């Protein structure tokens, strides 16, 4: 066994025995029903080797991790003009907060808070029916992961739709400021389905490879994005990917990372690894408690923090 394979399995073992696991998201029944004892970890190295532990092949609701792929898609469509409608600064507020939007006239702080992700969906929806737009994102994610089996969990999408009153408020509020081009219900249809994409750690780590390799899923493969864009997406993941806990994630883990309330985190060690972890119990900020701890263990042991000398 290589060192990394042993490390991955040791971390999974430690997490399996952890007493404090956080609280599983309860705002929709399909997430509330997930067993908090689940834990998966996948480390895909730059050499293409894949190291798995625990429930790494079990699909889970990727939720806000999808915002990375939707942002990549939107930048491909409209380039830097996206930044006229969405900021690039950490918000210092929870993911579904509405307070900054009034002061900042309907322009969300960044593409990873819900308001910013809804604007990104509005960009991706241009010229399409919502169904076609979400199909386009799903195809993109399947392409990135090189896995045609990735699907949307329709029960999660329906539950998002029937309980998403804060997101409905955010979309309507931005519409009032002229920062939504489509009817809010159409843009939200895309957003709710995007949150409901289900992926395993193996699939998620595979989909993140383009951010480890400076824009290509494999060295020498056609580019998904330019090296500059990959760098910038990583920068946004580092500064905004964990909402008001982004500073703490940088402090503890030191990698670009994006979390979701399903308990998944995608983390990128540029040039080294694309990492996906899943543990459904969340901390007070809505980020995976053991997922963060597992990544902390991993970067401590490997020296992969981008701040390491
Ligand atoms: O839109 C929402 O509020 C939910 N679908 C969850 C978003 C999410 O994952 C936030 N991240 N931690």
Low-pLDDT parts are none
Identify the CATH architecture.
3-Layer(aba) Sandwich
- State the total count of DSSP E strands: 10
Distinct small-molecule ligands in the complex: 6-diazenyl-5-OXO-L-norleucine
Please give the count of helices.
14
Mean pLDDT: 97
CATH class: Alpha Beta
Q: How much β-strand is present in the residues?
A: 5-15%
Largest sheet: 5 strands, antiparallel
As for the number of domains, it is 1
Shape summary? globular
Helix content: 40-55%
Strand order of the largest sheet: 3-2-9-8-7
- Write out the CATH superfamily name: DD-peptidase/beta-lactamase superfamily
Derived structural class: alpha+beta
According to CATH, what is the topology? Beta-lactamase
Q: How would you summarize the topology of this molecule?
A:
Layout: H1 3-16, E1 23-24, H2 29-32, E2 40-45, E3 50-54, E4 60-61, H3 66-78, H4 99-103, H5 114-125, H6 130-145, E5 151-152, H7 154-163, H8 165-176, H9 184-195, E6 197-199, H10 201-207, H11 209-212, H12 227-240, H13 246-252, E7 257-259, E8 264-269, E9 273-278, E10 281-282, H14 289-302
Antiparallel strand pairs: 1-10, 2-3, 2-9, 4-6, 5-6, 7-8, 8-9
This protein binds 6-diazenyl-5-OXO-L-norleucine.
Residues 63-64, 95-96, 114, 160, 167, 195, 259-261, 286 line the site of 6-diazenyl-5-OXO-L-norleucine.
């Amino acid at each position: 066994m290589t060192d990394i394979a042993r490390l991955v399995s040791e971390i999974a073992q430690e997490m399996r025995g952890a007493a404090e696991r956080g609280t599983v998201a309860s705002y929709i029944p399909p997430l509330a029903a997930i067993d908090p004892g689940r834990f998966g970890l996948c480390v895909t190295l730059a050499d293409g080797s894949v190291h798995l532990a625990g429930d790494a092949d079990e699909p889970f609701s990727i939720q806000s991790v999808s915002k990375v792929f939707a942002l990549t898609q939107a930048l491909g469509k409209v380039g830097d003009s996206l930044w006229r409608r969405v900021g690039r600064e950490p918000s210092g507020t929870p993911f579904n907060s509405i307070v900054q939007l009034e002061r900042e006239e309907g322009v969300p702080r960044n593409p990873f808070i819900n308001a910013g992700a809804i604007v990104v969906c509005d960009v991706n929806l241009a010229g399409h029916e919502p169904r076609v737009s979400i199909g386009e994102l799903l195809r993109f994610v399947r392409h990135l992961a090189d896995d045609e089996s990735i699907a949307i969990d329709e029960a999660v999408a329906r539950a998002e739709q029937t309980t998403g009153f804060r997101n409905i408020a955010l979309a309507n509020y931005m519409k009032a400021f002229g920062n939504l081009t489509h009817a809010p219900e159409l843009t939200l249809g895309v957003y709710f389905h995007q949150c409901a994409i289900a992926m395993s750690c193996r699939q998620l780590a595979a989909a993140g490879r383009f951010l480890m390799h400076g824009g290509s899923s494999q060295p020498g493969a056609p580019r998904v994005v330019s090296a500059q864009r990959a760098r910038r997406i990583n920068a946004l993941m580092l500064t905004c990917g964990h909402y008001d806990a982004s500073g703490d994630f940088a402090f503890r883990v030191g990698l670009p990372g994006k979390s979701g309330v399903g308990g998944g985190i995608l983390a990128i060690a540029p040039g080294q690894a694309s990492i996906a972890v899943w543990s459904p119990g969340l901390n007070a900020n809505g980020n995976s408690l053991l997922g963060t701890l597992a990544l902390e263990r991993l970067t401590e042991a490997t020296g992969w923090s981008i701040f390491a000398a």
